[in-house]
């Protein structure tokens, strides 16, 4: 992946830790200048210092915070070639059934995962268009492709992200911006430490290439989709899950 993103500036949201951090590190390794944004300010600043990125605070539930983040990037970077919409709230796998989900939890998941993704893309769309080869990569989930039970708020939100990706590809394509989504399977990281071992085993044994997946496993796909030559795959949703779900 070395040099694939030379000369390009990329923003990765939710990159203080976990998947977002792995994606940010991969982009830096591919030559990009990277800005990371997260609601976790202390962890975000520490990560930025460790990996050689710049940190900007953002709360995807707050439109004013998103606007401030966009203004900061415009002032300090001047150009933006790539946006990775990674930040999201994940409710627990094996959680409450559909008729026991707390309404407040449902609303917060939709606010951050769906509205937040839209608002970040909207706030940065002009900069992406002005770059001449803007790319947006949304993090979806393969749970939305097969309908994982007892995870409804999260699954519904990621299904919305998939639909949003397709519509945005149509609208942003004439402006030279490609929009795609990556749909990972369940990963082994701190965000899924709460998942029971038997549930991990269920997914990992059901994959065409059995075994666990780490955040780093989806990074090469994301890096490719951020390159200038990836426009031909715009509007697509790419499962990266060791073959748990085929499309």
Automatic annotation (TrEMBL):
Cited InterPro entries: KR_dom, NAD(P)-bd_dom_sf, Sc_DH/Rdtase_CS, SDR_fam
Keywords associated with the record: Oxidoreductase
Any Pfam family: adh_short_C2
Top-level taxonomic group: Bacteria
Domain Ketoreductase: 8-190
CDD domains from the UniProt entry: SDR_c
Annotated GO MF terms: oxidoreductase activity, acting on the CH-OH group of donors, NAD or NADP as acceptor
PROSITE patterns linked: ADH_SHORT
Family per similarity comment: Belongs to the short-chain dehydrogenases/reductases (SDR) family.
Protein name (record): Short-chain dehydrogenase
